[in-house]
Amino acid sequence: MLQDFAFVGIFIVVAIALAGGPLILAWLVRPAKPNPIKSSTYECGVETYGDAWVQFKVQYYIYALVFVLFDIETVFLFPWAVVYNQLPLFAVLEMALFILILTGALVYAWRKGDLEWV
Amino acid sequence: MNVINDPFTWLAGQLVNWLSTFMPANGVSITMAVLRAASLGIFALVMFMVMTWIERKGVARIQNRIGPNLAGPWGIFQPLADGVKALTKEDITPDHADRIVYNIAPILSAVAAMIVFAAIPFGPGLIGADINIGILYILAVSGLGVLAILMAGWSSNNKYALLGAFRVVAQLVSYEVPLVLSIVAPVMLAGSLSLVTIVEKQPVWFILVLPASAVIVMLSGMAEVGRSPFDLLDAESEIIAGHHIEYSGMKFALFFLAEYVHAFGVSCIVTALFLGGWRGPDIAGVTVPWLWFFIKAVLLFNIMVWARGTLPRLRIDQLMAFNWKFLVPLSLASLIVVPLADRLAQGMGLTQGSWPWALVMLAFNVAMILWAFALVSAAGRRARMAAQVPAEVTAAESHDESGYGEEHGLAHGADAGHAPAAAGAH
Question: DSSP 3-state assignment of B213?
Answer without folding.
Answer: helix
